[in-house]
Amino acid sequence: MLEPIVVKLGGAIFEDETALKNLCQALAQVQQRPLALVHGGGVIVESLLARLGLISEKIDGLRVTPHTQIDFIAGALAGTANKKLTAAILTQGRAAVGLCLGDGGLCQVTQMDAKLGAVGSCHPGDPDLLTCLLEQHYLPVISSIGIGSDGQLYNVNADQAALAIGQMLQGPMVLLSDVPGVLDAQGKLINELSTSQAQQLISQGVINGGMAVKVKAALDAAKTLQQPVILAGWKDAQALSRLLSGEPFGTRIIA
């Protein structure tokens, strides 16, 4: 079996039905290559919390998750977002299975920081379920909801979840979001980014918030996997197809 590509998908795509359809068509076009998809769903979470009259905030790009809200957030991510994405892939003719980080013990999750509430740190767990699905040509669609050894649900940052899955499968990693890659101070795409360059741009505030979390996760992944990690956008469907086939696209992150 070829090395699986681990694709992390940002939740903003759920606001663009055309982009979601194009992405799933691109995924269906590379059926010969094993893929594992890890996704977020912040826009769905925020919409649900707003309808419930609940406040949502972030610290350093991580969503604060009070224990009183984890049931709602788990429903939005492991339920609505996961099943919408799985359904969109199925309609394009590729077999997909919706999962969360806790299914089959995929990842070991522990509470990250008490001030963040039910937010989890994620580490590789048992790969057997994923290996079985990939060998049978299924596309695993994995939400970033984890289950701790205490049986509690945890909200895991999707970039960090993708890193854990990438460590487990030891394949190439692609982080997709609503921007074409990492941008410089003038808003231009950076084709390749090293650790020292990234640290400088983060310290200058050019890379900040959610993108800083993405870049740090990509650098960790590149160092751990000992291969470059791609940060790219999902808006260009043709380029996305080329990317999944191994052609250059977005920002290449090197450790």
Automatic annotation (TrEMBL):
Belongs to the acetylglutamate kinase family. ArgB subfamily. It is found in: Cytoplasm. Keywords: Amino-acid biosynthesis, Arginine biosynthesis, ATP-binding, Cytoplasm, Kinase, Nucleotide-binding, Transferase. Residues 5-231 form the Aspartate/glutamate/uridylate kinase domain. It is an enzyme of class 2 (transferase). HAMAP family: ArgB. This is Acetylglutamate kinase. Substrate binds at G41, G42, R63, N155. It comes from Celerinatantimonas yamalensis. It comes from the Bacteria. InterPro entries: AceGlu_kinase-like_sf (IPR036393), AcgluKinase_fam (IPR004662), ArgB (IPR037528), Asp/Glu/Uridylate_kinase (IPR001048). The record marks K8, K214 as: Transition state stabilizer. Its main location: cytoplasm. It catalyses: N-acetyl-L-glutamate + ATP = N-acetyl-L-glutamyl 5-phosphate + ADP. Pathway: Amino-acid biosynthesis; L-arginine biosynthesis; N(2)-acetyl-L-ornithine from L-glutamate: step 2/4. SUPFAM superfamilies: Carbamate kinase-like. Its EC number is 2.7.2.8. Catalyzes the ATP-dependent phosphorylation of N-acetyl-L-glutamate. Transmembrane segments: none annotated. One of its GO terms (molecular function) is acetylglutamate kinase activity.
